[in-house]
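Hello,

Our lab assistant flagged a job as stuck in the queue for most of the afternoon. It eventually completed. Since we weren't sure the result was trustworthy after the delay, we are filing this so someone can double-check. Below is the sequence as submitted and the structure that was eventually returned. Let us know if re-running is recommended.
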Amino acid sequence: MHLCRPLLAHMKIEDKFMPYYRRVQEHAKKQRHRQLPFLSVSKQPSIRPPIPDPRDKLGLMKIDLAREMNVKTGDRVQVLFGSEKGKQGVITRLVQDGKNTVIVSGINLKRSFWHPEPGPGRPSIVSVECPIHITNVVLLDPVTKQPTRVKRRYMMNGECVRISKVSGSAMPDPVPVGMSERELLWAKHESQALVKEKARRGPLKEDVFGNRDHFKTLVRIVKGQAAKPGGSAAAEQSAAGDPW
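-- returned structure --
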């Protein structure tokens, strides 16, 4: 903005000389808040209202991170953090529970159930893979074998392919994944152990202490001997000789 010095020379502050930068500020302030003819201009700046977000009414929305991270079943991944850091495995299943977790073969094993067919050389308790959050795993570059992120691009024929950001090469197709040995053992465990009814709390259905008629007969004999004169001593001798 170009200002003429003679026009602003008359500006003073309390009968003192006004610096040039103050004169420029005062002039710009007056130009900003000047009163237009037949119009009343507000001094507040015009602020555009924010765009309404449909998620405000519905609450938080769950995002499928597997789709956003371009991760599929059968991809080889590497663990980033935790006790299994650095280990590699193949994604066998994407857990569809809304928690964005995956099952990786041979990673995060926990003891789960008894072996349905125990024998020599077989573990008594079978370990299974527990879910891992999908942000704790990363895809591996097919060329450098290093962790990489993946982007999607369309080819000339319209096919959508995944491209590694490290080497720029196309990601290979996921390997076919079938049922593992642990899943087969779990299926046998479900068909055998889980079908049987478990003992529940409550009164016992049968007398686990045996028949009590014998004990009742002994009590009757002791009471009869105690009723006779001198029967208490005889009862004590008989009790000392034979505890039953």
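-- support follow-up --
The delay was a queue issue, not a problem with the job. The result is valid. The helical segments are 5-8, 20-32, 55-58, 65-68, 181-192, 213-227, 231-241. The CA atoms of residues 225 and 231 lie 5 Å apart.
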